Amino acid sequence: MSILDNIIENKRQEVAKKKIVQPIVTLEMDPNFSRKTFSLANRIRQPESIGIISEFKRKSPSKGILNDWSSIEDVTHDYVKAGVSGVSILTDEDYFGGSIEDLQTVRKHENCPILRKDFIIDEYQIIEAKAKGADVILLIAAALTKRELIALGTLAKSLDLEVLLEVHNQTELDKSLNPYIDLLGVNNRDLTTFETSVSVSKLLAPQIPNDFVKVSESGIEEPHVVVDLMEIGYEGFLIGECFMKTHDPGKYCSEFVENIKSLTDET
Questions:
Q1: Which of 41, 72, 141, 150 has its CA 20 to 30 A from that of 175?
Q2: Catalytic, out of 70, 85, 117, 176
Q3: Where does residue 69 rank: exposed (0-12), middle (13-18), buried (19+ CB within 10 A)?
């Protein structure tokens, strides 16, 4: 089994337990369930936006511990101060060291679009995302069938949640396009080797319809890479490890954003 297969199998067991501990009827009573959500797509497309979606991630299956010392409140607050378009919160516990409580914590303190980053395979997780304060959910093409993508996307839209669809190659892109997507992310990480290359984003850029906000994910380490990707149509840039592996992720994010602005002013 691949690492993705293991994660999905683990996720099925996790969701089954959650349904018993906190049934859907309980989630629907949460005040956040009736909250008007923020649009990440609109934030990214504002004229002054740099399009950064900054991620809080403690660890990953490929890199191990990235950051086990930073406060999620401090880091995400600094991200928002830096002028990012939104924040991404890893809520997977076993493989990424996150939790749904992390999402709740950020929602209490920040009025910005929040992406729930997880391996979503069940409608329960989308309802949970809305109840805990998310504005956007991630659907991973490699983990879902076309029918599942449509069903989960339809539910998300009915709850006023935006959908970021993640693909890794042309095959996934071809099978996955549907009307229930707001943002289309190209993940530059190979799921078999975990190596990253922004050439994946460059290859797929012309194939993505302009109806969707184009987002490049993973492997973005330098401001000039963002500028290069902007020139071929990308508007959003999901960046996590680059920030989180530093001593002060929020400060590094701020410097990263300012460097992008300087580069774009020169062109």
A1: 41
A2: 117
A3: exposed
Are 190 and 196 a contacting pair, CB within 8 Å?
yes
**Phi, psi (degrees; rounded to nearest 5) at 90:** -70, 120
Separation CA 178–CA 165 (nearest Å) = 10
Active site residue 217: yes
Closest CA to 114 of 202, 40, 7, 21: 40
Distance CA 232, CA 251 (A): 28
Instruction: Please answer whether residues 66 and 85 qualify as being in contact, where contact means their C-beta atoms are separated by less than 8 angstroms.
Output: no
The active-site residue, picked from 11, 54, 57, 132, is: 57
Paired sense of beta strands 114-117 and 52-56, if any: unpaired
251 is catalytic: no
214 is catalytic: no
Q: Tell me, yes or no, if 93 is annotated catalytic.
A: no
Model confidence pLDDT, tens digit, residues 55-90: 999 999 888 999 999 999 999 999 999 999 999 999
Can you give 142-157 as a three-state secondary structure string? Answer: HHCCHHHHHHHHHHHH
Asked about 218 being catalytic, the answer comes back as: yes
- Regarding beta strands 59-60 and 64-65, do their DSSP bridges make them parallel or antiparallel, or are they unpaired? antiparallel
pLDDT in tens, 238-257: 999 999 999 999 999 999 99
pLDDT of residue 80: 98
Q: Which of 166, 172, 235, 241 is catalytic?
A: 166
The radius of gyration of the chain's CA atoms, rounded to the nearest angstrom, is 17
pLDDT at 267 over 80: no
Q: 25 pLDDT exceeds 80?
A: yes
166 is catalytic: yes
